[in-house]
Amino acid sequence: MCQNAFVPRYVDKDERRRQVAGALHRIAAREGLEKVSIRTVAAEAGLSVGAVQRDFGTKDELLHFALRQMLANVAKRISEVRIGPGRLSFAEGLRRVLTELLPTDDDRLAEARVWSAFYARAAVDDRFADVLAELDAHSREALRAAVGWAVETGELAPGQDPDALVELLLVLVDGVWLSAVRQPSGTPLDAPRAAVEAAITALTVARRDDRAADARG
Amino acid sequence: MCQNAFVPRYVDKDERRRQVAGALHRIAAREGLEKVSIRTVAAEAGLSVGAVQRDFGTKDELLHFALRQMLANVAKRISEVRIGPGRLSFAEGLRRVLTELLPTDDDRLAEARVWSAFYARAAVDDRFADVLAELDAHSREALRAAVGWAVETGELAPGQDPDALVELLLVLVDGVWLSAVRQPSGTPLDAPRAAVEAAITALTVARRDDRAADARG
DNA sequence: CTCCTTTCAATACGGTCGTATCGATACGAA
DNA sequence: TTCGTATCGATACGACCGTATTGAAAGGAG
After folding, report:
1. Residue A185 belongs to what H/E stretch?
2. Which residue of A has its CA nearest to B171?
3. Among A27, A80, A203, B123, which is most buried by a count of CB atoms within 10 Å?
4. Which nucleotide shows the minimum CA-to-C1' distance to residue B55?
5. Residue A159: its chain B contacts at CB < 8 A?
């Protein structure tokens, strides 16, 4: 009779919500978000329709949870990159952050395909756009940390505006992963990987003054 | 009995195919590609379901025609920008090309929303990816023409690699319009417009050597 | 004029969708 | 043990989907 202390929880609810979200990610990466339905997700997760319904109630809630799950995954990955004194150098830290953000391997390419589907949703649904704004904020913060550390160590030319550089890097990240996503399947991931290295090279070139002139022309 | 000379064409078929595609574009920009169906498109175009069916046969054909129509529109717009001797200067030509490619007004933002939906499709369907590759080629050609003319007139620093610059601009274009698309509706379009001007400024700065140093910091 | 083909709206059909409902079952509380 | 509740798979329902079909209307060809 205790109001809600009675919880015969046979399974870990959050864990299964995450598993269902994973099933959704696999379907979306393989066939697109329009093939995602309660039924297809339930089948992919090895559950019944009713089970998914009980965990999420409505399809909209399922989609939002899956999106937030992706956001959490990326945010965790890039927040674990530790740049600073005694940690990673600017070049290596930036490389790690960009590698996490860009489709540098097949898993991340699959993830990028799902992102592209959610971007299309965000274009017509502000609720999704708000979540993507959070992703933007996380990426900006990680890049700001990397660039800020470069300023401290003098790895960046002193007159360079760090904020503008961060914004440029954000645009580059978006442009590069979008280019990778639109390639026909099977295209090797050389372009995103090369873009990472090109960005590192361009931004760490200020270390040696004689190479600064080369960078400009 | 003439095999097919008997054509009592009451309406211009191609014209109406374009009108139907326009209806699809409006729905996709407003509610997303998943709300596009034979029925909704027919209603938006003021036609019956049967009419749309006769013009396109299958929904897949309708989608591909609508995508190719968007491609043709953009290709026409950017190919009309004439850069060269007696025509537009590098700065002005680049400004025009970038203005056409980026969501610099509400119409182009609506178009960008539809592009984002087709990008998501291209991520899981090579047939759409192939069309987007054509868009890529058109953009690359237009930017190559602009940069090439800048090299001829010396508006670009001579050591700068034109091809690399074109690729950089392409990535910037993708990143900027994707950023604009994910903003909540009602967000002003200052960012894409500022990006156009920033690119112009950064690339035409080489005209005056004293400003080259400022650009680098 | 009469035919013949194209156009057209309307409707039918089979399928999938999101969601609601329902009996059976499993397990903690008493 | 018995009871009450949370979980479960299965199924029902109405809506919308893509597509096929059908019969009426329309306008050049003879």
Report:
1. none
2. A175
3. B123
4. C7
5. 216-217
The pLDDT tens digits for B24-48 are 999 999 999 999 999 999 999 999 9
Q: How far apart are the first and last CA of chain A?
A: 78
CA distance A2 to B78: 70
Q: Which residues of B touch A176 (CB under 8 A)?
A: 171, 174-175
Within window 30-49 on A, which residues have Cβ closer than 7 Å to strand C?
35-40, 49
Q: Which of B31, B124, B215 sits opposite A30 (nearest CB)?
A: B124
Number of residues that make up chain A: 217
pLDDT band at B9 (very low <50, low <70, confident <90, very high): very low
For residue A62, the number of C-alpha atoms closer than 13 Å in the C-beta half-sphere is 27
With 0-12 / 13-18 / 19 or more C-beta atoms within 10 angstroms meaning exposed / middle / buried, residue B64 is middle
Residues in CB range of B149: below 8 A, 6 or more apart = B83, B84, B90, B93
pLDDT digits (tens, 9 = 90+) for B80-92: 999 888 888 899 9
Confirm whether any atom of chain C, the nucleic acid strand, is less than 7 Å from CB of B50.
Answer: yes
Q: Is the pLDDT of residue B77 over 90?
A: yes
Task: Output the pLDDT for position B210.
Answer: 41
CB contact under 8 Å between A113 and B132, yes or no, is no
**What's the pLDDT at A100?**
96
pTM above 0.85, yes or no: yes
**Given B119, B157, B172, which is nearest A182 (Cβ)?**
B119
Tokens representing residue A36 in the block: 């995602």
What pLDDT shows up at residue A42?
Answer: 96
Q: Which of A17, A53, A23 is nearest to A40 (CA)?
A: A23
B174 vs A10, B147, B177, B178, B192, CA distance in Å?
A: 48, 18, 6, 6, 11
